[in-house]
Amino acid sequence: MTVEIELFMCRTDNFGALLHDPRTGETAIVDAPEEAPILAAIERRGWNPSTIMTTHHHGDHVEANLALKNRFRLRIVGPESERDRIPGIDDTVEEGSVIPFGDETIEVIETPGHTAGHVCYHLPRSKVIFTADTLFALGCGRLFERPAPVMFESLKKLAALPADTVVYCGHEYTLSNARFALTVDPDNAALRDRAAKIEALRAADKPTLPTTIGEELATNPFLRWADPAIRKNLGMEHATDAEVFAEIRKRKDNF
Ligand code: ZN
Ligand code: FE
Questions:
Q1: Distance 112 CA to ligand 1 centre (A)
Q2: What kind of fold does domain 4-253 have according to CATH?
Q3: Which of 122, 156, 170, 178 is the 20 to 30 A CA-CA neighbour of 108?
């Protein structure tokens, strides 16, 4: 990882993140849930942000867009299909868009499901991805604007990234996600270990991020549609991967 990342809490359970290239000094804010903690993080690091990268239009991801734009005269980038709902947006991106960032490039991956235009920001060289409300640690976003088969395809794209890709997501939902995960995958030793670590981190009020794609593949039930033990547990040995995913998502909605 060549970039630096400053992670902090906003609102009640949103993560804020700053992304910084140490050589050029370029700094981006990944989503803008709340102005004060973002300003505090900028101050703490002494970085000067030039961009907000918006993942999707929900209020808890764009609330501070205009205030930060006024203060820093920065540029706001976000998904083309949600441009009318993202305050202050300047430039739009879509699948395959490449944003130059210091010595890095940020590649845009469209991941519809939670919202119709949700995007993730991937830094292939530093092996980092910001997944916001698509892929959470041990979870995935609720399906507000697109159905399960669409989210399944989005998650398949993330599952195909290198296993050592470091993942930052949009919310600290990991503890409740872990409790749900254990109901569908109770005999998974890696999951049980991870759940214990998460309990300890949250008891100490520490964040459960970052995670990695590899860790999620081993423990996140929303990426484990092919796992024989989960399928057996659900009575879905002969279902398609997309059907297994949809059933797990449905159970989580009712958990
Ligand atoms: Zn959201
Ligand atoms: Fe959110």
A1: 11
A2: Metallo-beta-lactamase; Chain A (3.60.15)
A3: 178
